[in-house]
TrEMBL record:
Protein name as it appears in the record: Phosphoribosylglycinamide formyltransferase
Gene responsible for this protein: purN
InterPro entries (alphabetical): Formyl_transf_N, Formyl_transf_N_sf, GART
Residue positions binding (6R)-10-formyltetrahydrofolate: K65, M90, R91, L92, L93, N107
Similarity comment text for this entry: Belongs to the GART family.
Organism: Ollibium composti
Key words, A-Z: Purine biosynthesis, Signal, Transferase
Amino acid sequence: RKRTAILISGRGSNMTALIAAAADPAYPAEIVGVISDKADAAGLGIAAARGVPVQVVARGDFASKEAHDAAIDKALTKLGAEIVALAGYMRLLTTPFVEKWQGRMINIHPALLPLFKGLDSHKRALEAGMRVHGCTVHFVTPEMDDGPIIAQAAVPVMLGDDEAALSARVLKAEHRLYPMALRLVAEGKARMENGRVTLSGFVDNGDNA
Ligand code: GAR
């Protein structure tokens, strides 16, 4: 099983979905640790309660972004992490860090990329009059929310949706999509090569959301 670390900043519901999937010994990834940049992230308590080692690496404890990312890198190395999963980690990572982990670091974004990169994706999808919306798991590259796409799930935008209703529908889809996408990466069925994703060895209808 591929040793996987999760980076969070807050609630940790995607983290919880990954921990739940990895509780099955047949799942190809094991969650070896959770690192948060925020001491008060609710996800820390959830992970600890499930027996996953947690640690806080707070930005405020370091003089620069580079030093902060270097400390996270050190923590990941200590955990023996082979894969890094960003799950609501709300901080841009520095280019040297991203380049070191490129092809081994994935992120979930609450929109159908390349639409609605960045914050407030649900609000902007509603403002744009979208009738579908969704979520994306992608390999992380230095540009924010820009890396090659591993898997996506679409949900309908319903008449009368507000941000809360739409984000709740997308979040449910995230919790199904992320464990599926991490599985593909851990099994080597989704690989990043020359800046693109190569998918192999699975049936698209069954395995892509
Ligand atoms: C999720 O919706 C995730 O897709 C989003 O933050 C939320 C975190 O929730 N991530 C981003 O916006 C990253 N650009 P969670 O902590 O409950 O998983």
